[in-house]
Design a protein that fits this description.
CATH topology: Rossmann fold
Distance between the termini: 49 Å
Strand content: 5-15%
CATH superfamily: NAD(P)-binding Rossmann-like Domain
CATH class: Alpha Beta
Number of strands: 7
CATH architecture: 3-Layer(aba) Sandwich
Strand order of the largest sheet: 3-2-1-4-5-6-7
Largest sheet: 7 strands, parallel
Helix content: 40-55%
Order of helices and strands: EHEHEHEHEHEHHEHH
């Protein structure tokens, strides 16, 4: 039995990844689902169990180091091993830096704790088991972890940090037979984009980006699951993202114009 732990597993991409792993591996799948909402986790767990998977749900907050370490302890205590860690938990933010008042800058640190430190703490706690299994580590980053997007200064900072950390870890773990896959989704049709912070550190209620060609949650999860199974290094999910990654080196001004073009035309809520 292969054991997969998914943070941010209560809804969105994480929940869909869990369902797809359960549907694919069925009775050979053991899943650990972590998230803040016990009720939502239980609902996803029921869908996974319907495919024959064993599931452990842990209600927790990745921005708290002790809870990250407890999560891994509970996973190993229940299943005796860990083969794959999916660092998926994350928060969005949409605010131009100049709009953020000095007294509100603390939420930049809060965002970093969720997006970067939650992944670092979970990975550190999981590493002995992952090395023993010669397993997989997955980091769900964002195109904002490759290209700076206007209005995403805080979010991009967390995702660029994730990219640097997991690229370095990949090199460190190569000789141990551990793969590190970094996924770079673009705009995905999840409610997460509406719960992200605004300039005051409150739920923005909107994403600020054009979403006419937003990727479905199902397709995004499928690409990540497929990539981690094949131990791919990077999964850049959009054509524009792939182009922008290389054009950034050759024509950075053009990439900045592309990023500006991705913004919504209407006046943004403040």
């Amino acid at each position: 039995m292969k054991v997969t732990l998914v943070t941010g597993g209560s809804d969105g991409i994480g929940a869909e990844m869990a369902r797809q792993v359960a549907a694919r591996d069925r009775s050979n799948a053991a899943l650990v689902l972590a998230g803040r909402s016990a009720g939502k986790l239980d609902a996803v767990a029921g869908q996974c169990r319907a495919h024959g998977a064993e599931v452990l749900c842990v209600a927790m907050d990745v921005s708290v180091e002790a809870q990250c370490r407890s999560l891994l302890g509970q996973a190993v205590a229940r299943f005796g091993r860990l083969d794959t860690l999916v660092n998926n938990a994350g928060m969005l933010a949409y605010a131009r830096f100049e709009e953020v008042a000095a007294q509100d800058l603390h939420w930049y640190e809060d965002l970093m704790k969720v997006n970067l430190w939650g992944s670092v703490w979970c990975t550190h706690a999981a590493l002995p088991e992952i090395k023993s299994a010669r397993g997989r580590i997955v980091a769900v980053s964002s195109l904002s972890g490759l290209l700076g997007v206007p209005g995403r200064s805080a979010y991009a900072a967390t995702k660029f940090a994730m990219t640097g950390f997991f690229e370095a870890l990949r090199s460190e773990m190569k000789s141990a037979g551990v793969s590190v896959t970094i996924a770079y989704p673009g705009v995905v049709s999840t409610r997460l984009r509406h719960r992200g912070y605004n300039a005051r550190g409150e739920a923005a209620g909107f994403s600020g980006l054009k979403e006419d060609d937003a990727m479905s949650v199902e397709e995004c999860a499928r690409l990540i699951v497929q990539g981690m199974q094949h131990r791919r290094r990077d999964i850049v999910m959009t054509t524009k993202g792939k182009m922008g990654r290389f054009l950034k080196l050759l024509a950075p001004g053009l990439v900045e114009n592309m990023a500006l073009a991705a913004l919504k035309d209407e006046v943004r809520p403040r």
